[in-house]
Amino acid sequence: MKPPEVDRVAASRAAVAARRARASVKNAVVSGERSASSVVTVGLADKDTPEAGLRVRELLLCIPGLGPVRGDKALEKLAISPSKRIGGLGRHQQVKLLDYLAVRAPGTGYALPPTEVSTKLVVLAGPTAVGKGTVSTYIRENYPDVQLSVSATTRAPRPGEVDGVSYYFVTDDEFDRMVESGEFLEWAVVHNQSRYGTPRSPVRRALREGKSVLLEIDIQGARQVRASMPEAVLVFLLPPTWDELVRRLIGRGTESPEEQARRLATAKVELAAQDEFDFRVVNNKVDEAAREVVDLMNIS
Ligand SMILES: Nc1ncnc2c1ncn2[C@@H]1O[C@H](COP(=O)(O)OP(=O)(O)OP(=O)(O)O)[C@@H](O)[C@H]1O
Ligand SMILES: Nc1nc2c(ncn2[C@@H]2O[C@H](COP(=O)(O)O)[C@@H](O)[C@H]2O)c(=O)[nH]1
């Protein structure tokens, strides 16, 4: 009999293959003048193009595999009226629609390669001190094909953290401005303390270029990404044991005892949410955990 670890990895791979197959069917490229590609390439924001007069519903129905029922559901989810025309979309509606098209409409200016949609965007979440940052850094250093998203945060830098690499360290006012102008793909108050957010445009740009993108964010953020980009793969990083998690948090030595207690309280809530995720990876050894995460992407 195979050891359970091997079975788990095999099951993960089978599930990814199934997701990929579903995505590639959904995104099969069609030809013809009403294909999604003929409609969207000009850019949704440009009100002077002929496409501006097209209804969003008509645009969605051009996407292969998206019939009227699913198209209307998508519109409901995007909070866009079926009668709305592309040229009449507000900024937030445009942004949401572009995110949607980025994963659903291959061959457009916003598209991903048709067969690699489902595993291009991977979200890595998990409780405090489980090693998300360590595993992500290992991936950045050893798998250059994976683009790591750099978050913005209102928390102060820790010793050794570099602005623009670890995070973009911003003031509360700057964070407010970014929220207001819709610059975040997702954002959240984490550990009831500071705000953290994923800048939207680098993620979208990388996906458009066909790159794999890794977001290392908290569970609230993971839920938001799932809601707006359902093709994203959500991975939950687990500690070998609770005691080891506590050891790692204390051993890191970057938080006060009060902050450690706050983070451990959040960790209990977060661990209870692990079933919402597509995959669970135990961080015993950093290189092995990193490999397991990268294996979920379509790269070597
Ligand atoms: N596989 C591992 N084995 C032993 N120690 C580890 C392992 N992975 C990470 N660590 C250590 O655990 C501590 C916490 O790791 P890290 O800062 O990466 O966690 P994190 O999940 O990003 O935490 P947070 O959510 O609080 O930012 C660090 O001191 C790190 O060196
Ligand atoms: N929702 C988001 N959560 C994020 C983002 N960037 C990081 N995080 C999470 O915050 C906590 C705390 O991080 P720390 O660096 O202060 O220890 C951790 O769980 C990160 O994953 C983000 O952009 N959005």
UniProtKB/TrEMBL annotation:
Binding site residues for ATP: G126, P127, T128, A129, V130, G131, K132, G133
EC number per UniProt: 2.7.4.8
GO molecular function, one term: ATP binding
Main enzyme class: transferase
Location(s), subcellular: Cytoplasm
GO cellular component term, pick one: cytosol
Keyword flag Cytoplasm: yes
Keywords: ATP-binding, Cytoplasm, Kinase, Nucleotide-binding, Transferase
Catalytic activity, reaction form: GMP + ATP = GDP + ADP
Domain of life of the source: Bacteria
Predominant location: cytoplasm
PROSITE patterns noted in UniProt: GUANYLATE_KINASE_1, GUANYLATE_KINASE_2
Residues in Guanylate kinase-like domain copies: 119-298
Record Gene3D superfamilies: 1.10.8.50, Guanylate Kinase phosphate binding domain, P-loop containing nucleotide triphosphate hydrolases
Xref: InterPro entries: GK/Ca_channel_bsu, Guanylate_kin-like_dom, Guanylate_kinase, Guanylate_kinase_CS, IHF-like_H2TH, IHF_actinobact, P-loop_NTPase
Task of the protein: Essential for recycling GMP and indirectly, cGMP.
Family statement: Belongs to the guanylate kinase family.
Protein's name according to its UniProt entry: Guanylate kinase
